[in-house]
Amino acid sequence: MACRRLAGSNHFGNSRDMSEHHQSIAETNQRALLVGHFSTVGDVEVLRQTERQLQALGMAYDVTPYTDAREAVDSTWLNRFTLDPTRYSHLFVICGPFTPAMAVQHESIFGRFKHCVHIGVNLTMVEALATFNPFEVLLERDSDRTVRADLSFREAPSRVPVIGLCLTGFQREYGDRHRGALAEEKLRRLIKNSGAAVIEMDTSVPAAMNRFGLSNAAQFESICARLDAMLTTQLHGMVLALKNGIPTIAIDPVAGGDKVTRQAHKLGWREVFEPDQVSDDDLLAALTRCLSEAGRADAGLVRDRAIASLDGFDEELAMALQARPDPGLRDDLIPKVGMVLGLRKRFKAWKRRRRAQSRV
C-alpha cells in the first residue's frame, strides 16, 4: 500500500492556522469517513473527540463501525456497505490495535476507500512503522516511534446515578403467589428508562453460591454504601441498603405482600410496591424521590429508627434461655412415615453424617 507519510504531523497547528484551515475546508466539498471497532466506551469517547475536532474545523463526516452489530450503539452510524466511496476525501481510522491483517479483514473499508487520505487516530501500531504504516498522517496512541496518553482523557467525565439491583430467586414456599419474574422485569425496565448505571448484587453465601462472587456482608455492604439507590425484590437487599442509609425501591415478589412489605411498613419506608399494581411511571417517580436529598435523608432516619426499635432485644433473648422444653408442641411437626421409607431416611441421614465426618 504505497502512500505519502507525514511522520512528524501531530497537530493541525496554532489557532490562526486552525482558523485559516477551517475556512479552506468549508469552501471545499471534502467529507470524512470515521471508522473503527467502537466496541468499548473508551473507543466511543475517542470518536466523540475526533467528531468535535472535525466539527470545529467545518469538515463534514459520517461514522461507520467495522461490524454491523456496533451500529446499535448510535442510530446515526451508517452501514459500511451502503456508502458511496466517491463522496469521501478522508478516512479516519480510530482507536484500537492496527495490523496488516486488519486491513485485509475489513476489505469493505480499506479496499473501497484507498483513494482517501488515511489518518490514523489513537491507534496502537502493532508492527514497526518502518514495515507497516499505511497512513498519510498517523496520530497514534503508541508505536515504536512514540507513545501518547489515550485521547479519552480529553473527554469531560459524565455522571449518572449508580443503582444496585438485588433480586431474589424463585421461592417455592409461596407457590402461585410468587411474582418474582414480573418484579424483575419491571425493575430492569426502570433501569433502562432511567439511564442509570447498574451494579447487580447477590446476598448469597458462600462465594461459590453467589452469582457475582461476593462472599460476606462486608463486601456486599461496602458496595451498598457507595450506591445512589438500591432496587430489590429481596428483604435483605432492602434492609442492608437502608442500614447503610441508601434509599431503596422494593418490589415485594409475593402477590398481596409478604415479608418485604411487612418489614418496609415496620421501618416506615414508603417505597415498597406490589408487582401486579405498580406502573412504570410509579417506579420512575419513586426513583426520583430516592435520588433526591430528601430521599437520602429519609433512608438515614429509617436506619436510626430501626436500630432504636431493637432496644430490649438482648433482654428478650436472655429470658428465652429460661424456657423449659415442651416436646408436645412438636408432636405433629414431622408426619409419620412407613417403616421402609423411615429406614431409607435414616440411611440417608447416616450417609450425610459420614460425609460430614470425613471432611473434618
Give your account of this protein's structure.
InterPro entries: Polysacch_pyruvyl_Trfase. This is Polysaccharide pyruvyl transferase domain-containing protein. Residues 1-23 are annotated as: Disordered. The protein is α/β, with parallel strands linked by helices and 360 residues long. The chain folds into 2 domains: 15-154, Rossmann fold (3-Layer(aba) Sandwich), CATH 3.40.50; 162-309, Glycogen Phosphorylase B (Rossmann fold, 3-Layer(aba) Sandwich). 38% of the residues lie in helices and 15% in strands. It contains 12 helices and 10 strands. The protein has helices at residues 15-26, 41-57, 100-105, 107-110, 180-194, 217-224, 235-243, 259-267, 280-290, 293-309, 313-320, 339-359; strands at residues 31-36, 60-65, 90-98, 117-125, 137-139, 162-166, 197-201, 229-232, 248-251, 272-273. Strands 2-1-3-4-5 form a 5-stranded parallel sheet. It has a 5-stranded parallel sheet with strand order 7-6-8-9-10, with helices on both faces. α5 crosses α9. The longest helix is centred in the C-terminal third of the chain and has 21 residues, at 339-359. The radius of gyration is 31 Å and the shape is elongated. The termini are far apart.
